[in-house]
Amino acid sequence: MHIFRSKTKIVITFFVFKREKSYFCIIMINRILQKQLESDLSRKKVQVIFGPRQIGKSTLSEMVYNNFEEKKLWLNADDADVRAQFENPSGLKFENLFKTYKLLVIDEAQRLNNAGLTLKIIADQVKHLNVIATGSSAFELNDKIKESMVGRALEYKLFPFSVQELSDHTSIFDENKLLDHRLIYGYYPEVVNNPGDEKRVLQQLCDSMLYKDLYTVEKLKKPYLLEKILQALALQLGSEVSYNELANIVGADKETVERYIFMLEQAFIIYRLPALSRNVRTELRKARKIYFYDNGIRNSLISNFSPIALRNDKGALWENFLITERLKKISYQNLYSNRYFWRTKTQQEIDYIEEYDGILNAFEIKFKKNSRAALPLTFSQAYPNHRFSLVDLTNYLEFVLNGS
């Protein structure tokens, strides 16, 4: 592929690269976010798609791009020639560059110098232009645009494939048959698209997340410590996490552990679930659980791909899977809720709670069929405005699918 000197011809060259990339895509699975992105184009905001590497941000943007019928332009900021076009940003410059286009996609926008300022100028000065920008991690792009883009940007989080998306692609019945497999290998697009090669793909994904996103960007002084923290968190899946205890396990101070966990959250590897604590003296007030955005990544970190039937951690994997699928559902449906777990010092507990408009929806999670569970009396008395449900193998699809 040749690089021409003319700015216009350079742009055409990038578009051809993108077309070639989509041609070799193995399976095109529709993403739930696509309709939202296309609908929001009418709002004339900069649409920023966050998510970890290799999650499908470019493919999702391409789907929106291909459906857009007016004149459009695709730029990949990984290319030095593209980045050069955005040096010394100004309103006049961008008006001239983009005056004939109605849609601009900037893939890997975090690679631009002054990304926030650049997007702000485009939003303010080229008002007819719809802009979609993707970023590989929150700490690379979010920090650059947060202050500059107040009131100008719409933010979206893209996760690994959801049960809903894969069920829509095949069927609920087919996806249900693959449940044990998904609990072990997860939902990353490349994992799903490469059956039989899951272990190697997951290892490469872990290396990419750690070395490209964290070691390189953050210039960590002790990269081995990050791996130890991740492995410790993986082994404590489904349990409360104490930063002091974690610091003792990995041989670091509490502040360092907290900082590394924050970075892991920003890289979309883990997320925290806080404890609900309002009315009961014996409630755990500062406790938190930490979950992984993908079971496959978690299992790869501890090199454990044993079948579900042989595992001692099947309950933790099931809990991580369900709560993460519920997170995808809440995010994609724009449901506004607070999310917790609940536990007292006397070991009364509820696995998962969602709060909508003051109503607490409590869920007990069991990895077996026709389970039984009772709501703790302490919780029922302290929070009378509640609902309670049991989630197990017989009804989990109702819990994770969008129509439920």
Secondary-structure map:
Elements: H1 7-23, H2 33-40, E1 46-50, H3 57-67, E2 72-76, H4 80-85, H5 91-98, E3 103-107, H6 115-125, E4 130-135, H7 138-145, E5 153-157, H8 163-169, H9 172-177, H10 179-185, H11 189-192, H12 198-218, H13 223-235, H14 243-250, H15 254-266, E6 270-274, E7 288-292, H16 295-301, H17 314-332, E8 338-343, E9 349-356, E10 359-365, H18 377-382, E11 386-391, H19 396-400
Parallel strand pairs: 1-4, 1-5, 2-3, 3-4, 10-11
Antiparallel strand pairs: 6-7, 8-9, 9-10
The helix-and-strand class reads: alpha/beta
User: Share of helix among residues?
Assistant: 40-55%
Between the first and last Cα atoms, what is the distance in angstroms? Answer: 49 Å
Give the domain tally: 2
Mean pLDDT, nearest integer? 86
Q: H/E order of the elements?
A: HHEHEHHEHEHEHHHHHHHHEEHHEEEHEH
Major sheet summary line: 5 strands, parallel
Described by the principal axes of the CA atoms, the overall outline is globular
Q: What do we call the CATH homologous superfamily of the largest domain? A: Winged helix-like DNA-binding domain superfamily/Winged helix DNA-binding domain
Radius of gyration: 23 Å
Count every helix, treating DSSP H or I runs of 4 or more residues as helices.
Answer: 19
SS elements, strand count: 11
The fraction of residues assigned to DSSP E strands is 15-25%
